[in-house]
Amino acid sequence: MLPIERRQQIIKWLDKEGSLPISEISTRLHVSEMTVYRDIKPLLEENVISKTSGGISLAPIVNPPSNVCSYCLKELHNRHPIQIITNDSRVEQLCCPHCGLLRYKNIEKEVSQIICRDFLQNSTISAKMAYYLMDTDFNLNCCQPQVLTFGSLKQTEQFQRGFGGIILRFDEAIEEIEKRMNGSKGCSCSHERLN
Ligand SMILES: [Zn+2]
Ligand SMILES: [Zn+2]
């Protein structure tokens, strides 16, 4: 058997059986443990396999850190993002409160925390406590209908005096966005992306 054939055989076994000791592989392939180590060296270097307490196994697939919105899949630019933390400690990034609220609605039972930023101060606030300003003249250039989030009612009202719009609470904001989306999925930005 050529080294490349042995490598393929090792991968097949690991795929089927999980983890295998080097000694076992050496016996099965009728080669020395030294040879097995030489065979698997490139596989270890390329992260195809990894060392375990019992020998070697296929390396777990690691998802690259997400830099797209979990709802509309638009690339994150982090101007007014929202974060959702699920019950199993997964962190989802959403491009703007529009997507944050719609995503929340989709996976409501799995959500442990939903966090947004105060639009003026950039401080972190719980989205459920935030004030939402809709229909302002200020354009985030993200998803429509757009909402801005604020930590205090006073500041929301100040911003409203300058830029107009209506003030909503968490549940009202979700309801209003859904109503205006008129049952359609995603948001305007995802359509732009697809076209
Ligand atoms: Zn989005
Ligand atoms: Zn967006």
Automatic annotation (TrEMBL):
Any one Pfam family match given in the protein's UniProt record, by short name: HTH_DeoR
Q: Which residues form a coiled coil?
A: none
Domain HTH deoR-type, residue spans: 3-58
The record's section on Gene3D superfamilies has: Winged helix-like DNA-binding domain superfamily/Winged helix DNA-binding domain
Superkingdom classification of source: Bacteria
Asked if the Swiss-Prot or TrEMBL record annotates the protein with the keyword Transcription regulation, the reply is: yes
- Keywords noted in UniProt: Transcription, Transcription regulation
Where are the membrane-spanning stretches?
Answer: none
Q: Which GO terms describe its molecular function?
A: DNA-binding transcription factor activity
Report whether Protease shows up as a keyword of the record: no
Annotated InterPro entries = DeoR_HTH (IPR001034), N2O_reductase_NosL (IPR008719), WH-like_DNA-bd_sf (IPR036388), WH_DNA-bd_sf (IPR036390)
Q: Which PANTHER family match?
A: HTH-TYPE TRANSCRIPTIONAL REPRESSOR YCNK
UniProt name for this protein? HTH deoR-type domain-containing protein
Which organism encodes this protein? Neobacillus vireti LMG 21834
Taxonomy of origin reads: Bacteria, Bacillati, Bacillota, Bacilli, Bacillales
